[in-house]
Structure formats: C-alpha cells, structure tokens
From TrEMBL:
GO molecular function terms noted in the UniProt entry: 2 iron, 2 sulfur cluster binding; metal ion binding
Keyword Metal-binding part of the UniProt annotation: yes
Protein's recorded name: Rieske domain-containing protein
CDD domains for the chain: Rieske_RO_ferredoxin
Entry superkingdom: Bacteria
Keyword Iron set for record: yes
Amino acid sequence: MAKIKVANVNDVAEGGLKKVDVNGEPVALFKIAGQIFATSNICTHAHCELDVSNVIHGDVVECTCHGSQFNVKTGAVVLPPATEPLKTYQVSVEGEDVFVEG
Ligand code: FES
C-alpha cells in the first residue's frame, strides 16, 4: 500500500467532511477534535455519496438518502438501514500534509 498525499490539514474543517480521491476511489476525510479520519465516501446501503449530505453529529456521519449513520473512526454502522460498515483508511499527518494509505 502506498501513502498518498490527499489534502492539507486546513482543507478539512473541524466537524466537517472533505471528499478526496485515493487511487480513483472516493474517500471522505473528517476532522474530529483536531484528528483526521478517512472512510469510503460511498454509503454501503444504496451507494449515495456522503459528502452530498454532509451531516455530522460528533463522530457520526449521517447519509441523508435513507438515514443510515456510521462512526467515522471505525466505519461501524450506528443506525440502519445500512448493515455493512464503511471501509476505513489509515491516515497520517506530517506537518500540514494529510496522507492516506491506499
Ligand atoms: S444510501 Fe445511504 S442510507 Fe441509503
């Protein structure tokens, strides 16, 4: 797996979501309490893009298509109808550069 630079830490707002590409896959970056996390940007329920709704409650992102909720730190389903977790990616920050393992 390669480490890919995807953003500057300041590109991701606290409590926000930024969509980036990792080897052609849409990935969502989240900043929670200053720490960056990365998951697939595609909801596992019916494949809506999470950045379109961009509703975040603490460390939970909600897909507004049908209301599924996921923990952005683990990818785990918090609220159905989704049953499959989001894919998560390992993130590292060097200086102001954000890298994702892809
Ligand atoms: S596509 Fe996300 S909840 Fe249905």
